[in-house]
Amino acid sequence: xxxxxxxxxxxxxxxxxxxxxxxxxxxxxxxxxxxxxxxxxxxxxxxxxxxxxxxxxxxxxxxxxxxxxxxxxxxxxxxxxxxxxxxxxxxxxxxxxxxxxxxxxxxxxxxxxxxxxxxxxxxxxxxxxxxxxxxxxxxxxxxxxxxxxxxxxxxxxxxxxxxxxxxxxxxxxxxxxxxxxxxxxxxxxxxxxxxxxxxxxxxxxxxxxxxxxxxxxxxxxxxxxxxxxxxxxxxxxxxxxxxxxxxxxxxxxxxxxxxxxxxxxxxxxxxxxxxxxxxxxxxxxxxxxxxxxxxxxxxxxxxxxxxxxxxxxxxxxxxxxxxxxxxxxxxxxxxxxxxxxxxxxxxxxxxxxxxxxxxxxxxxxxxxxxxxxxxxxxxxxxxxxxxxxxxxxxxxxxxxxxxxxxxxxxxxxxxxxxxxxxxxxxxxxxxxxxxxxxxxxxxxxxxxxxxxxxxxxxxxxxxxxxxxxxxxxxxxxxxxxxxxxxxxxxxxxxxxxxxxxxxxxxxxxxxxxxxxxxxxxxxxxxxxxxxxxxxxxxxxxxxxxxxxxxxxxxxxxxxxxxxxxxxxxxxxxxxxxxxxxxxxxxxxxxxxxxxxxxxxxxxxxxxxxxxxxxxxxxxxxxxxxxxxxxxxxxxxxxxxxxxxxxxxxxxxxxxxxxxxxxxxxxxxxxxxxxxxxxxxxxxxxxxxxxxxxxxxxxxxxxxxxxxxxxxxxxxxxxxxxxxxxxxxxxxxxxxxxxxxxxxxxxxxxxxxxxxxxxxxxxxxxxxxxxx
Length: 771
What we know:
The chain has about 775 residues and is α/β, with parallel strands linked by helices.
């Protein structure tokens, strides 16, 4: 390469042709100077010889002055041509030339949430993200190789892909290799902590005074356009942690690179719901699947395939898929045998295949086993405390109700193995021993249901001491003394969304439940430190809604029904305890205080209440990718050593897990800290007798991530007003900004032209007067 490389010159000019013509014009002052020289004919004259010496002395000075003027005129034309050609240099080069540049830490955040796997044409959005990062790194290497680069995945900021790497040949190759190995995860984009963790990464390098943060993402609306105060910094501004890091002392530049697909269309299976209560083998149940089309137009003929275990079910077709709303499909199925069973619902693959499948798991039982503790046995069936309830759960006939009640007296309760049942019912039981309280605590915490009926045998003081425990025990409320009003009272449903009363409609009393008289009842006293309200969605009986002054509900207490007495005494209340549920009823299960067992609503309501109690409150099915998984273990039945099978089993081996204590009287818990992908996880538990049970836990994608609508620049600037950021759309926009670090010199050249012309005029005037 010679001293003057035209290719290098062209890379420093925005208009090289103008500079070429301007450079040629520099010859004009030289030609004018040569043509304007005066020609003299030499004649030797003796009288003038004495002037020769003086003329020799001045000739050199005049020659130098003329050269200076000629050089200034040429420089003015050359500077003028260069100004129109718009030369530029790297800002880093300018700073380095003056010796004042600080190192810049360049941080690239790559969105690797599952929406980045959307395929448009021949490439995915994540493929474009890789290309964008490659172009950025190439630009850094070309324009500022002395800077360091940190590459972070937004799913795991704490584990950098590349940390503070310089851009020599070895590390440049390492960056590209690691970038090429990245793939989208199945995680949603959780921005609430991303920029806090990014600021922490910058803070770890105490010497970092200048940083540029590049965010490469598809910028989904649901992530980036947040309501005020919705995390991620003050007022919901996600970039607030970066602004706080920069403060007044550090330099910060934020660049958002949007490589999403503005016209993305996606269809996803967003839900698969099991029926409430236990699933009984041989009993038909209805599964509800939900499909959403995330687009503005309808679609048709979407085929759904449901699979139970390995057995496919008849497909169903949605003839018209409405946009941006759940399209519900019912599947009537029947599980052949008890045990854990996986369930899968899928639709044909589209641009984002990962969300076209939804998983569920059912714990199929041979029957809902109910232990009824009879507090007032009698040889007369009509006077027996548990006879009517037992008959309601398992009526005579050929059709199996799905319930298997077992009735014991209080002595038999002490000998019962609670782990063999789904629900325990205390029917007018005098008191509960401390040993059985501990057993009930563990039973309910592990997902069992407990129903407590009142009655004349109940000792309120004992119940409140051992079961209520000032709000820390099992009972949702304190049991007061029995009340016998002068006039009968009735039931008023305060929560029509409850499974036991949902079938009665949102208003009115079509079945006449409000006419059932209650002659006596317990004074159920809700906690005093309540949240000050309860759901009132209509009532049955004389009172349609609870007056505000009587609406009392603890934060964990659900008031299902009240009596119509002036105090609006709670009649049915419930609360969750661990994974289980406790329901307290302020009246007995028989007809001693009321005539409800004679009414046609008694049987369906009791069936639904017991079924509801049998449904674990902390159902293991509600798990999303990225969450920890936990399975409760009864140490009296299982060993603490368990095995975990991921959705990739048997391709991936089983993982041993050691169960740990879940707390005092709460048994053991087997825990898996991070579910990294969707599917059905299996916890293999070993019984004391050496046999194995499998507990299945379905893990699904966050359906909100399936909505691919993009946030535009105005929305982003409103959501994140500071620090100011640069916004680039697509790879083409990134190429257009590849010279962002260039500094154009035309302003300086314009000043130079003016200064040179003024200097030429002043010197020409001064030197011309002396001649």
